[in-house]
Amino acid sequence: MKGSQVFAVFAALSVGVVFGYFVGKGGMGRETSGSGSGGVGRPPSSGELSALGRDAGSRRAADDDDVDAPGEGGGAADELALRALRLLEEGDVEAALKEVFDAPGQMERMEALLRLVRDLDAGGIEAALAKVRGMPRGMDMFMSASLLMARYAEISPEKALAFASSSSGFERMMGTASVLRTWAAKDPRAAGAYLVGTVLEEGGDEWQLRRTAASVASEWSRQDPEAALAWAKGLPESVRGEALETVIERITTDDPQRAAAVALALPAEDRVDALRSIADQWSRTAPEEATAWANALEGDERAGALEEALQGWAYNDPDGATAFLANISDAEERDGLVPDVASRWARRGAESAADAARWLAEQEDGDGKVRATGEVVGTWMRSDPAAASTWLGEQPAGEAKDRGIVAMLEGRELREQPEIAVAWADTISDEKLRGDTVYSSTLRWLADDREAALDYISSSGSLSEVQKAELVEMTPEQLRQARARGGRRRF
User: 483 falls in which pLDDT band (50, 70, 90)?
Assistant: First the structure.
């Protein structure tokens, strides 16, 4: 992903976070590498797997200890805001902003800035934005800029848009999106007209234009879904899809059948995604009804909607979802839906992941079972790596187990224990996949314990002679770069 795209993602997140922050506050409108004893060529012993689980659990517990208790930090934000407001009353906007931006604690800075911007006029907002422009790019910068532009839009959306237009690149894109969303909360018709008549005419990053159109549609649909729908339908095809889906999701919340009728009347290029959105939204509250509706559709529309509905059903009621799946007579279709059920079921927690894995082991072999094994193991490794590893070790050799091993090796626990990772990679049945996976794991092992890794390389039957030569000749710097790429070879 290019740098500009990364910043665009941060910008979109910031706009949403800041807007939610305003609403919530009432402002709108007002370690250690281990080595296994199991030996090379077979998975680690159960003792090593248990240690994996204990290590992960202790790390999570340590992480939890670092989290502030609810309510902590509010006093600090109050004090910070008061100091900044005193400086603002003295007419020193620069000093007030410096007081906020130099303070420790991101939430404290954002709360204090939120209080501060309410007292800034247009000139103060522009001075603050100039200060933000000099900050390092990161979440603080993105959130601060979005919050300030949102406040500017409250004062005068026209002035705010003119200011954003005078900027360039990323600042212009983010500022325009933030202003339009804020404007749409008060006057969606005016914001929508400006988007169509000015922003879309000028062009720009297509991804950001789609997201901006969707944000206007989101605010409009909260006030008048039918008017928002008519507006979204009239957008150019390049930006229409996400705006339509946003409106239809809002309608689905109140009346799924009405949303379905709207979606079925859309042009073919918009219909499949809209129906998927309905199925996803509907299945969160009434999964059985959503699945029955999706199952009555036809062709690609049925396939997409049924996937979404079954995922929602599997999360809410896995027994009901698996019973429905078992009654599908077409074996190929049933296999294709297995990942949707198993992966969403596994996300409920460690116990559910274990249940999903046991159910998965009973399913017929097929591509769906292969994909689902990787997804379930990957999810399970984050909650109970010892149990996930033990279950996977008990599965018969084959493509599904291979996919599960690859997913397991992508987890943090085994990335930090490369000798154990190599032992697991050596059990992959597919020769090419085994060689590539052993190669990646051995890269990390070389960086951690070169002597032990070299002993393994010399006797490995999984690595080709070319791979062995590459590994042995790698310099420390090359190993560092390879680890940064996740152990993948650079061709």
Answer: low
| pTM attached to this predicted model | 0.70
List the chain domain ranges.
1-24+79-183, 187-254, 417-491
CA pair distance 409, 414, nearest whole angstrom: 6
Helices 331-346, 350-361: inter-axial angle, 10-degree rounding: 160
Choice between 428 and 478, residue whose per-residue pLDDT is larger? 428
| C-alpha to C-alpha distance for 118 and 104, rounded to whole angstroms | 21
As a whole number of angstroms, the distance between CA 268 and CA 241 comes to: 11
Amino acid letter, 271:
R
Contacts of 458 (CB under 8 A, 6+ apart): 468
Class of residue 339 by CB neighbours under 10 A (exposed 0-12, middle 13-18, buried 19+): buried
Nearest residue to 422 via CA among 395, 384, 460: 460
- Assess contact for 254 and 286: CB atoms under 8 A: no
Torsion angle in degrees (nearest 10) through CA of 233, 238, 239, 244: 40
To the nearest whole percent, how much of the chain has pLDDT over 70? 82
